[in-house]
Amino acid sequence: xxDLNTQQASVSVLVDVPxxxxxxxxxxxxxxxxxxxxxxxxxxxxxxxxGLGAHRHVYTxxxxxxxxxxxxxxxxxxxxxxxxxxxxxxxxxxAEFDYLLSEQSLEQxxxxxxxxxxxxxxxxGKFLGRSMMLPVMRKQLLxxxxxxxxxxxxxxxxxxxxxxRLAGTVETVPAVK
Length: 177
Hints:
Layout: E1 6-15, H1 19-26, E2 41-44, E3 55-60, E4 63-73, E5 77-84, E6 87-88, E7 94-105, E8 108-118, H2 122-154, H3 160-166, E9 170-173
Antiparallel strand pairs: 1-8, 1-9, 2-3, 3-4, 4-5, 5-6, 5-7, 7-8
InterPro entries: Polyketide_cyclase/dehydratase, START-like_dom_sf
Protein name: SRPBCC family protein
Organism: Candidatus Seongchinamella marina
């Protein structure tokens, strides 16, 4: 979905692992709780464990949101839809998350994360998205990217201290007009 009501935030981080190693971690759809702040566990709920159609629940305590892979680019990344059942994740009309890998050098990978969303309520929703949601989304993306850097480089789950220490390595990607 790429209409006037869709808004997005993107960040990028350089990870000191080859792109093949980064892809090995990224395509394992069960690992999100190792780098996303506040996630306590990830549960694959589809028979497909990775690739197009893979579906997971990501938990914060006993509550969860659903994520389903809706686009798959082997070795490069994928897009997930964030939802609750058949409906988009509240309060959104659309919520999608892109993971994109690109080789920076033989031993480095650039990871770009993009969250696209559309709010209900027309112009008011767009204003609320721009003024309230985008700043929160940028902060969340920064934390996820810093956590990915730590987890991908060490193999250990990222802590809040790790994310804070590595936050300065994450760059905001300018919005596409």
